[in-house]
Specification:
2 domains; globular; 386 residues; seven-stranded mixed β-sheet; alpha/beta; single chain
């Protein structure tokens, strides 16, 4: 198999008419919304898929030895953790895993807790278990989004059973520090909550030295009886359409409860997804490093443009992901996403769905030229408000 080679991230790849959710759902609009990059996946993944397709038989699949070895090596090399094979639960995606967790550890009338703004499914999975939602807004301190610990202590109830965490945080782009993660784990321990840590963006940290990722699976052993860590290659390697993720659950009892709740509600994982994941984790690191460097430049372009060219818009420092969270509240428009749709022909993610009206999320996981085009369209739309 070829090792990951240099890729031209500047290449514009036409995606309209391919059944792309990002590009074909709103074909008259310029899309900068759903977390889907406009780059081809690494050649090593494409090679692995072609080889698997070449076999010709696409039957029911099991996680094969090569995949398992690559996952264990990934956990060791990336997170400095020694994980046992039986501590891994294979999943067809992270959103189903959030729903599964709600059904596994909650009863009707119990509550799920999370902090906003947050990836929209976090605000809806409680319905699958007939639970209630407690959402506590993150707070801004010295220009940085943080947990509001006092508000969380006030909001939590005896009926609260689960805390849903996004780290790195989507849409804020925060990489939470070890102190923050340890404090959150202690909060969950004190209030008898199961901590579900969605770490799907953990390989998209733009400066690992400055803001290293703290994997929940690496917290002290006494806390693992209440921690489920969710991971996936999908965002990093742009293979979300293949539908593969995995959970690391180190506590046997917790893992059995999680698996038992699955029942017959989750689909089989397709045979191609397993081989794509193996290739990503085994051979994709050189490509990932090139991607991080490119995204860092795009991040700098977005941040500089918003802060210097578009007075009235506010953007935090982005430590991870390819998603920019933009505060538009000073524009005094009822719905900023709808405003940019009508005035600029852009489709941006609407902050309402993240629990934070007055904001938009801008996806800069695309060629630099496209990033500039989107920002310039936003700028021209703002002129109409003058």
């Amino acid at each position: 198999m070829r090792m990951a080679s240099c890729i031209d991230f500047d290449q514009i790849i036409p995606r309209r008419g391919t059944g792309s959710l990002k590009w074909d759902k709103f074909p008259t609009l310029d899309p900068f919304w759903v977390a889907d990059m406009d780059f081809t996946s690494p050649e090593v993944i494409i090679d692995a898929l072609q080889k698997r397709v070449g076999h010709g038989v696409m039957g029911y699949a099991l996680p094969h030895t090569g995949l398992m070895d690559s996952l264990l090596e990934y956990m060791h090399n990336r997170h400095q953790l020694t994980i046992e094979q039986e501590q891994i639960v294979h999943l067809g995606g992270l959103v189903p895993a959030l729903s599964l967790a709600a059904r596994a550890f909650g009863q009707p009338g119990d509550a799920v807790m999370t902090c906003t703004p947050i990836y929209p499914p976090f605000l809806g999975v409680q319905h699958d278990a007939k639970m209630n939602l407690i959402s506590v807004p993150h707070t801004i301190h010295a220009g940085r989004w943080e947990f509001d610990w006092d508000a969380m202590e006030t909001a939590v109830t005896p009926e609260t059973k689960i805390f849903l965490l996004s780290n790195p945080q989507n849409p804020l782009g925060r990489v939470f520090t070890s102190k923050e993660i340890e404090q959150l784990a202690s909060f969950c321990d004190r209030h008898d909550l199961i901590l579900i840590s969605d770490e799907i963006h953990c390989d998209l940290i733009l400066d690992d030295q400055k803001t290293p990722h703290i994997c929940a699976a690496g917290l002290p052993e006494h806390l693992q009886k209440r921690i489920i860590t969710l991971l996936a290659p999908s965002k990093t390697y742009n293979i979300a359409g293949l539908g593969y993720a995995f959970a690391v659950i180190r506590d046997d009892s917790l893992r059995r409860k999680f698996i038992a709740a699955r029942g017959h509600t989750l689909p089989e994982i397709n045979c191609l997804a397993y081989y794509a994941a193996e290739a990503a984790y085994r051979h994709g690191e050189p490509w990932r490093q090139e991607l991080i460097a490119y995204l860092g430049k795009n991040r700098d372009t977005v941040t500089d443009f918003i802060r210097t060219q578009t007075p009235g818009l506010v953007i935090p420092d982005i430590e991870a992901t390819y998603l920019a969270w933009i505060d538009c509240r000073t524009l005094e428009v009822e719905n900023p996403a709808l405003f940019f749709e009508k005035e600029a022909g852009l489709y941006l993610s609407d902050g309402n769905y993240f629990g934070a009206p007055g904001h938009v999320r801008f996806n800069y996981g695309c060629p630099h030229r496209r990033v500039l085009e989107g920002l310039q369209k936003m700028d021209r739309a703002l002129v109409t408000l003058a």
